Amino acid sequence: MCKRSGFCFGALPRQLRRFAALVLCALLSCLLIEPVSAAAEPARSAQAAVTLINLNTADAATLARAMDGIGEAKARAIIEHRQRNGAFKSVDELALVKGIGAKTLAANRARLTVGSGAAAKVTPRAPGTAPAR
């Protein structure tokens, strides 16, 4: 035994010290794994709360705010394309807008709709339902 604390780790047999180190490592890994899985949970709930953006009624600010890879300039290009060519008949027509490529369309497809012209600018959908196309 150590004089100061009454316990000395070095006085334990070698196998017992290794076992104690192994237990300590296992406990630390459990503590580190839990925060990682808890951090993944908000991402799942955020996916369930996706709102649909109607390409035919949304304004430029809504498009820029809600779509990945779309800034103010591309949002204005979408609006101009809609004004020149009429309402989008499908989400795939978004690729006809200058500056919108297949990757941008794929990244945003789940949150886009072309629904009826009378729909709200951003219409929420129930979790687990498929987006209208």
How many extended strands? 3
- CATH class annotation of the largest domain: Mainly Alpha
Q: What is the average per-residue confidence, as pLDDT, rounded to a whole number? A: 77
* CATH homology group of the largest domain: Tex RuvX-like domain-like
CATH fold category name of the largest domain: DNA polymerase, domain 1
Low-confidence stretches: 117-127, 129-133
Secondary structural class:
mainly alpha
Instruction: Give the distance, in angstroms, between the N- and C-terminal Cα atoms.
Output: 75 Å
* Rounded Rg: 27 Å
Describe the main β-sheet briefly.
3 strands, mixed
> Can you give the helix content as a percent range?
40-55%
* Percent of residues in beta strands: 5-15%
In total, the number of domains comes to: 2
Q: Name the strands of the widest sheet in spatial order.
A: 2-1-3
What's this, in brief?
By secondary structure, this protein is mainly α. It is built from four helices and three strands, in the order H-E-H-H-H-E-E.
Description:
The protein has 133 residues and is mainly alpha-helical. The chain folds into two domains: 9-47; 51-124, Orthogonal Bundle (DNA polymerase, domain 1), CATH 1.10.150. The protein is built from four helices and three strands. It has a three-stranded mixed beta sheet with strand order 2-1-3, with helices on one face. The model is unreliable at 117-127 and 129-133 (pLDDT under 50).
